[in-house]
Fold:
Amino acid sequence: MDLASQDIKFLPGVGPRKADIFDKELGIKSAEDLLRHYPYKYVDRSRFYFLHEITAEMPFIQVKGQILRFEKVGEGHNLRLTAIFTDGKETIELVWFKGVKYIIDKYRTKVDYVIFGKPSPFNGRYNIVHPEIEIASQLPPPEQMGLQPFYNTSEKMKSSFLNSKTIQKIIFPIIQQIKSGIPETLPAYILQKFALLNLTESLINIHFPRNANLLNKARQRLKFEELFYIQLSILRLKNWREQQSTGFVFSKIGLFFNTFFNEYLPFELTGAQKRVLREIRIDVASGRQMNRLLQGDVGSGKTLVALMTMLMAIDNGFQACIMAPTEILATQHFASLKEFLGDLGVGVALLTGSTSKKDRVVLHESLRNGELNILIGTHALIEDTVQFSNLGLVVIDEQHRFGVEQRSKLWKKNVTTPHILVMTATPIPRTLAMTLYGDLSISVIDELPPGRKPIQTYHYYENKRQGLNQFISKQVEAGRQIYIVYPLIQESEKIDLQDLESGYEYMRETFPNYKVSMIHGKLKPKEKDYQMQKFVSGETQIMVATTVIEVGVNVPNASVMVIESAQRFGLSQLHQLRGRVGRGAEQSFCILLTGFKLATETRKRMEIMVRTNDGFEISEADLQIRGPGDMEGTQQSGMPFDLKIANLAQDGKMLEIARNVAMDVLNEDPLLEKNENRVLATQLRKLKTNTLNWGSIS
Ligand code: ADP
Ligand code: MG
Structure:
């Protein structure tokens, strides 16, 4: 029987109502889906522990012994039940906050029980809250209990009695059913080459591990399979794209590019900028459509690379545009491009939500008749009224801020899809890039322009504020400018705004002789612009802001970035914010302010920030701390398939291998037509119909 077409509703212990919950909560419909719902952890029930062995780090343990007595403490809502449990030598307290009556009725003294739970330290001793209790004589001997799986469930599932235990019971008969063998999903030659466990054994052991070794092998096999199919799918898409997508040919390097390079460029390009420009040049001359991701740390000079790529387009008779995520950033791009280009004679215009109707009419016209070479703007560029005469290149800045939908609208602005250059200052760890953007070409600017002094970062507790104020004052006296950034989280916008405003008042009181600007997302664009301009021109010395200044803002004279409540920011955001300083010749500083009480993870974040300025190192650390699911950019970009068992933070090596195997397979057999690869084509089709359309990541 085909497991994929076996509706779980007919499985013993499921029925229509539970089937419905499975589907809604976990997307599980068939017996096969259920088989692929792997446990997220296992606990060792292969031995009994003694109470004297307990340490704080212990996961779930089981202990054999008896209950000595029960004791009720407190009343009403605060009622709790404790039981003193002994293993014959020592005692431990078992605690219940719920179901007190049930527990007292059910369990008694002088009976041998096996208790199972997680010990937690309490008042200098350990207790176990809500342990599982079983009668010892009714359990198989521990050697036969082995590793017990734990399955993810939701609150909703638990309230319908679909807990981990029930799931295990529901899966059990399916495992019996597959014992005679199910069709393999990897070709035999791959299984052999990497000594992988076959699918049947893997599925049996992932749910009911016979021993730790087999569990490990099962995990390896299933992880490999998962990563391999993702890579196979991405690489096929990449191949397909490279064959299918004809692109505009920018055949020549012409007058604009050369004149700019020889006469206008105010500095030498860095080695990395040159290399990336060469990579781009090859793409745009190839006759295929470019789809390139440009990664580079804040301040690495991506804008200039974008500009020079646009000049290539213009030299070949095409128009180009840049889409930026915020108005501030678009405006800034506009200003810096104008400055770079001087009187070169390139037509540049800015289009944002606050461009007036009158200006729009003129702009639309000059865009259509081709007078305008470069259009810079926010998502206002996407609007249907914006029509180019011949759009050849689209540059997208800070890519992760745009949804796939938004971006793809831009490609449609010409009959042939324009070349696409996506820029991001949030470096993505290699494993993530290979997975999320595996179908794109990737360029990396891994070198900062010369003469930059590394930003010095310090983590201060609140009580250092006096000293910090003196420091700020010194910096301003030396002619520098200061950013003070407050967190802004949607849910508590009101409170945050109060924080920001009182921070603003505090700065004005503390520094009556200096001028202070304030920017936040609730301001009208005009007002934001006005405040920003005052800071850019140096009229104000201190800028109190929310993260609206995070992206791209360039004020080279600003040398101090103070981040208030730094614990509320993620690593990549902290790094982005820090990147607002260190843009001029002076030594710059970043001060992370937090309270004393910090979670371990937060402390780690602060330490990493203090230790390194390298965005790639930071993103790698971020991946390790938070795991791939929470990394910025992953949600919108969307994984081709959800990862069920592999972990991009930990399985980088295996991912690399899986990618190489997928490449080899496709090199030998691009269309997966060979007999031994049939299974790959079939499985790929199956996986794809089960997932969203993700065909155009960028
Ligand atoms: P990014 O967008 O990558 O964060 P920018 O393009 O804003 O960085 O560049 C940061 C600053 O460095 C800008 O002021 C830019 O003019 C300057 N810059 C770019 N390339 C170079 C270079 N090769 N040498 C010196 N300065 C450069
Ligand atoms: Mg930039």
